[in-house]
């Protein structure tokens, strides 16, 4: 199942997305937030006149209580920034105020001279989880997957020594365009970032240093994850700067393309 959130007749709605002949169409309104429902097959819905996903006024498809991110989860990316491969997952937060819908502008703040893209696979939590144990299967706690751009003010991240400001500006967390339940990151899915159509990052989730089950168990030892929470799983090598006028696209195989223009604040 695939779903999005969108503005329709003056209100925010969840929409069921169906893919036919390579094109994504919103065919039904979902009458409850998918993250609050156990049985997605039986989710109440209402048929609407089909609306192309590309023409819909999309909203971020998640409404997380928190956004937990993994730093340096690909070996080559750790190396390109001169960092050691961590012995345990390295975690940080992005604030929910940074969320940005597909198509909306990433604003480069005046405080930074170097704003980088980081294309990532996003995991959406579907069931409250706390202190998952070694033999617990993490899959029942995952609702689905989406694309995330972990936009980063690299100069501020380096200067501060911790990452709250560098990762936390408004518009620094584009997410979408949809959430799919039909993906197996353990098998390896391609994560690609393009700037103005040129490929800058091309990785596979099979190269994660820490697999998703390790990451979810690790986070859940510290904090309870709630339905709708978003995990950004780390970026492959090839990060680089954005300037005003650029259009950045993060695409994850099986999900779609998250496209955002860049402007100066
Ligand atoms: Mg990142």
Summarize the topology.
Blueprint: E1 2-8, E2 11-20, E3 23-30, E4 45-52, E5 57-59, E6 67-71, H1 75-80, E7 90-94, E8 99-100, E9 106-108, E10 115-117, E11 119-125, E12 142-149, E13 152-153, H2 154-160, H3 164-168, E14 173-180, E15 190-195, E16 198-204, H4 212-220, E17 230-232, E18 240-241, E19 247-252, E20 256-264
Parallel strand pairs: 6-17, 8-14, 9-20
Antiparallel strand pairs: 1-2, 1-5, 1-14, 2-3, 3-4, 6-7, 10-13, 10-18, 11-12, 11-17, 12-14, 15-16, 15-19, 19-20
The protein binds magnesium ion.
What does this structure look like?
Helices cover 10% and strands 42% of the residues. By secondary structure, it is mainly beta. It folds into two domains: 2-59; 67-264, Alpha-Beta Complex (Fumarylacetoacetate hydrolase, domain 2). The mean pLDDT is 95. The structure holds magnesium ion (MG). Magnesium ion binds next to loops.
């Amino acid at each position: 199942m695939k779903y999005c959130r969108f503005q329709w007749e003056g209100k925010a709605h969840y929409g069921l997305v169906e893919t036919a002949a390579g094109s994504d169409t919103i065919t039904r309104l979902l009458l409850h937030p998918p993250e609050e429902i156990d049985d997605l097959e039986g989710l109440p819905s209402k048929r609407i006149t089909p609306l192309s996903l590309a023409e819909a006024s999309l909203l971020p498809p998640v409404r997380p209580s928190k956004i937990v991110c993994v730093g340096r989860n690909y070996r080559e990316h750790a190396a390109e920034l001169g960092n050691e491969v961590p012995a345990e997952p390295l975690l940080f937060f992005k604030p929910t105020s940074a969320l940005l819908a597909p198509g909306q502008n990433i604003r480069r703040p005046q405080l930074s001279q170097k704003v980088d893209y980081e294309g990532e696979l996003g995991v959406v939590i579907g069931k409250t989880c706390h202190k998952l144990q070694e033999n617990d299967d993490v899959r029942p706690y995952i609702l689905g997957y989406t694309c995330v751009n972990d936009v980063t003010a690299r100069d501020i991240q380096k200067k501060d020594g911790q990452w709250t400001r560098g990762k936390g500006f408004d518009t620094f967390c584009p997410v979408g365009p949809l959430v799919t339940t039909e993906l197996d990151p353990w098998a390896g899915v391609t994560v690609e970032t393009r700037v103005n159509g040129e490929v800058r990052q091309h990785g596979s989730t099979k190269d994660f240093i820490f697999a998703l089950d390790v990451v979810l168990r690790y986070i859940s030892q510290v904090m309870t994850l709630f339905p709708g929470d978003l995990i950004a799983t780390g970026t492959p090598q090839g990060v680089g700067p954005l300037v005003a006028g650029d259009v950045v696209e993060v695409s994850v195989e099986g999900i779609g393309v998250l496209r955002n223009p860049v402007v100066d604040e």
